[in-house]
Amino acid sequence: MSTIFDKSKEGKNRYSIPEWDGEFYDPIPETMCRENVSMPDVGEVDVVRHYNSLSRMNFGVDTGMYPLGSCTMKHNPKINDRVAALYGFTDQHPLAGDELSQGSLEIMYELSSMLCQVTGMSAFSLMPAAGAHGELASVMIIRKYFEKKGEKRNVILIPDSAHGTNPASVMMCGFTVREVPSTSEGDVDVEELKKMVDGDVAAMMLTSPSTLGLFDRNVHVIADILHRAGALFYCDGANLNAVVGRASVSRMGFDIMHVNLHKTFSTPHGGGGPGSGPIGVVAELEPFLPVPVVERSEDGYVLSSDRPHSIGRIHSFYGNFLVMVRAYTYMRMLGAEGLREVADNAVLNANYLRVKLKQHYNLPVDRICMHEFVINDEGMPNHVTTNDIAKRLLDYGYHAPTVYFPLIIPGAMMIEPTETEDKTALDEFIEAMIAIKKESEESPQLVLDAPQTTPVKRVDAVTAARKPVLQWEE
Amino acid sequence: MSAIPDDLRYTKTHEWVRTDENDMNAECGITDHAQEMLTDIVFVELPDVDMTVNAGDQVAVVESVKAVSDVYAPVSGRIVEVNTELEDSPENVNNDPYGNGWIFKIEIKNAGELEELMDAVSYNEHVESGE
Amino acid sequence: MSFVLNTPDDVRVMLETIGVSSIDQLFLDIPEDMRLEKISGMPGRLTESQAFRHLGQLASKNNEPPSFVGAGAYNHYIPAAVDHLASRSEFYTAYTPYQAEVSQGTLTAIFEFQTMICRLTGMDIANASMYDGATSLAEAVLMSSRTSRKNKIVVSETVHPHYRQVLNTYAWANDLSILEVPTSGGVSDISGIKQALTDEVGAVVVQNPAFFGCIEDVKSCAEAAHQHGAHLIVVVTEAMSLGLLKPPGELGADIVCGEGQSFGNPIGFGGPMLGLLAAGKTFMRSMPGRLIGKTVDHDGKEAYTMTLQTREQHIRRDRATSNICTNEGLCALRAAMYLSLVGTSLQKLARLNHTAASYLMKRLTDEGYARVFDMPFFNEFVIRLDNARDIVRRMEQEGFLMGLTLEQYYPDMEDCVLMAVTECTTKTDIDNLVTTLKNTV
After folding, report:
1. Do A314 and C116 touch (CB under 8 A)?
2. Domains in chain B, ordered, with CATH?
3. Residues of B whose CB is below 8 A from A404
4. Rounded CA gap, A20 and A28, in Å?
5. Consecutive 10-residue averages of pLDDT for chain C (441 residues)
6. Cα distance from A67 to chain C (closest Cα, Å)?
7. Which one of A28, A66, A170, A260 has the fewest beta carbons within 10 angstroms of its own beta carbon?
8. What are φ and ψ of residue C334, in 5° steps?
9. What are phi and psi of B39, to 5 degrees?
């Protein structure tokens, strides 16, 4: 695991810089210059071997099944990367001007348009660079909306099952969070909600389908309660993979939502990004979208900032364009039928796993699920926890599912197979889970000491937090 | 079974209080039960010395690898001392929660508030009930 | 094209196992009035080869000629090995490295990235990336405000106009008040900043090199800020400058933020970008974003892991240092690869940027065009041309994207053009530009 710095040796670097074949003018005063810059001193061969070997310590979707609930780790089509590498896209400067950027602008306009068709929203902004960024932008829009109305509302309601980015986004926009309890089935407790909605509530954020992988059958009722109180309804669209082509998000009553291109729309996760978190709104909220927006005129596509009520700019340029290219390509290849097929198979796969695994693991909520479901470690023998099961799965060649989320289910393990696995792959996963259950009963040490076959074993997170070492030292 | 010393008083939010002879000062920390739930503590955010606090105010934060827990003032008063050893050795809270894992000392404003705290037996019941 | 794998047989057996008669039965929880029969208004489905052709056509509608535009996105040469290594699918199809045992590749590389950014900026701690330079500035200001507990910020107009717009949006959302100080002679107006500084000001923000390309007197800005107990935040939009100029940390910066796209990432019509955030040790627990730390595993083997996660949203929720989750991981990886390849040659490379830019400046001033600011610059500067907008347009037709006209951002800078030069521009390219310019005018 040594780093590139460990491989440095003085004089190895031979990276060639062109020699300047002219006069030298206007040197920068030496007082403004640094004395040296301490970068690795290695050759290309070293760099290639180093990162090559690093990559082999990583597990990606291309390595094996990655049932990470709520993240939609589906296959990343390779054609997406080929087109995103086209020179006309990679080398285009964002300030080249509308006329010279018609290709890029068309992709942005058409992608927004397709997202509107898929979700039922009136308009989309592609500017947010990630889901959380989209959430923040949405909360900003909510704030702006009430500002324009002259109403001061301070509270945003969030279910206790929500992803952490929801309350964090609310906090970054000057609102306070009020937590709404869930029922034992993971639905919003509507009776409690009614008591909490008053004139100080600006909005409610809801993940739909829920973070338990279930469709909240009361979503219409919730929308009604909020709208009658003059509040807005936001959809965290992280789980869109379950309903794309099967349900209209706008008809659920939502006013504003975000989608994750790096989840539902197949763009790669990159080991932590780049993602893209476009936001969609109903017509009434369009004026507040961040600027610039892409519009179509007679002369072609143009960037327009003529939106006096916009929340303003939230990215230095237009968002993660090369990620949009991939999502656009994916949506064009799948079309309406292909997208519907995604939801159908995602939901089918999840239910199949649910039905098979519930015979061996505790399933807190046993009903037809959407694209993911939650089991937990209740009843596991020999003190085996969700964390242990997750680590043992690594030994079996799988990436672990999401663990300890949502918070309302203790010891949760959220499994999302996605539609890009077939029954054979699912059966193999089931066998691995059954084997782990058996090991927990008969030879628990194998599970408790897992993982054993990965490049490193369980890491000492405590020392890493007590005495943080955040950069390489000699 | 977590340790619950008889001679201390406790809050519902899992702080303990040790008062000196004249009930003038209170030494405070989190209970054995609390540190068990948090697991390995990695950081303690100490309150500012001289800060005036009311009972129930959040005054400190205890962080483990996977969770963050607020620590509340059991009684009102002024923070007179904080346990700076915890800056380098946060694990003291795990290893010796009632001893050198103490977190702060308050100069008590109103000794009457001490009556509202739980004794060891009541706190034990509180823990057993699963709060 | 489809990526679903289930065969009709698979589907049949699975439905049977689940105990439903059709896939429709799995969607009954969705009320009828919300259901879709199909997505309407979508264009027809494409095969892979059709998609490739279509995207190729779109790419060719982007007609950018050789460019001298910078302004926050710079055209640098990306060594082939970066593309090659970053396209290894174990890197780019991986998720966030929550399971450290199967993510040592990503974690080690980001640890290297953090190290490189610390060295380049002269700071103690750097995070694993933010979305881009503008949002990293916004978050730097929020971080400063959290620690100082002050809500007034002084911002020099040398900071990129788009960055200031983004900062204004975040400031509005967080009830911070921004006081902008006009520039003077192409750099920050130190006396203007001093006038704006009160004890209520938590931070001063300047950019180096300034938006106009000029090199700032960061040290004086730091002194002014510190005299009033404010943080100095330095923004860097052209990361290549860090290879040559004194690191902001050495000049008194408390926080450094900005854009790392110049290191190994294509311009890509403005995204994905690579936000940088670095600060002194005191900000460690207040830092937004991911931090990768060194540790050992159960057997004592060297290992890397995400650390201090209790700052982050997935644990701290509404008390997190930020809501950021997905950042720009692959772009940071590319930067680490780039900086490893260029390595100790970085200073020479940065110097070449300046040399080429100063050659262009010489040629232009020799031809009678006015150098607007008489200040040292790195690889970007402002030149004045009569009827600049018209000339820039005509130069476009002649095959050159000459630069960025500035009056849209600074109304009193009519006829000013911001031009950037990198190591990708040769002497001949510059001579051709100047010749064409002369003929066009």
Report:
1. no
2. 9-124 (2.40.50.100)
3. 66
4. 16
5. 95 97 96 94 96 97 91 97 97 95 97 98 97 98 95 97 98 97 96 95 98 97 96 98 98 98 98 97 92 96 91 76 87 98 97 97 95 97 94 93 94 95 95 94 76
6. 11
7. A28
8. -60, -40
9. 65, -160
